[in-house]
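Our consortium's second objective concerns turning raw sequence data into structural hypotheses that experimental partners can test. To show how far this objective has progressed, the report includes one record in full. It was chosen at random from the queue rather than selected for favorable results. The single chain below, 304 residues long, was entered without modification.
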Amino acid sequence: MRRAAPGLGRSAALAAAIAAALVVLGAVPQAAQKEAAAGGPVVRLAYRELQPGEPVLVFLDSDRSVRSASVTLLGTKAELRPAPGGGRVFAFLGIDVQTKPGTYPLVVKVLRTSGVLETVRKDLLIGGREFPTAKLQFKPEYVTPPASLQARIKREAELVALAMSVITPEWLGDGPFVPPSDAPAWENFGQRRLNNKVLQSLHTGLDVRVPFGQPIKAANAGRVVMASDLYMGGKTVIIDHGLGVFSTYGHMSRLLVKRGESVAKGQTIGLCGTTGRSTGPHLHWAFRILDARVDPEAMLRLPL
């Protein structure tokens, strides 16, 4: 754990746009946007940065001639779906924390009601990102678990993976994501950790400095797909927000929801603790978009 951020907020999300006809990436003048819209559907991207650990929100400003659309980046494909109530069409993608810098193609496919399939390709430059390092001291059994616990750890890892492998094809969320607590967070997403002098782990979430026993709240509406006491993660809740987006809350002292339960944004789902592999009371808060592990701070900036 390192220095605390003054809060979970950073700079406002950046926006970019690509037009199916113009294949433009970046800020598009208003006149150009109107021209593109007249010629066909417009796809807009919203993101904080194009770098490892960042989410990308894809919007489709479609007309009635569009039957369906999909977007592919870094080998992951997502279908664009309408928001509840017939709102705008969108999808989530993520740039995994371990993605190497380079140029990667973004491919959008739009199927029109006439049966014509339009394909748009644009190369995106993903930059590098520096991540912190830390030296932590745990009980030996949490760094080198005894053989008697290996089966449990393996089984729990498989259950977590299974819980996040089933993609709900519609959005379950309710507007933008919110922090699970008012407490500040350490700036330790992506941290490389030397555990008991052994370089062993990559920290793919944020540690939030919530006092012991204080409430932990759901960052958005969704459905609980896991509420269990895990060896490494301690008392953990995983929420499915739909469209491949999952949030995780770990090391809690008490669970207040059950698997299969629907939760509202801001609902208390547990109390902060220090269960599992933990050096003291805090909340481990993490996000996954499909197969990508992304920064919770960036999720708060998405214009939903």
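The partners drew two points from this record. Confidence is low (pLDDT under 50) at residues 1-7, 9-38. The first strand starts at residue 14 and ends at 19. Both points have been shared with the crystallography group to help prioritize constructs.
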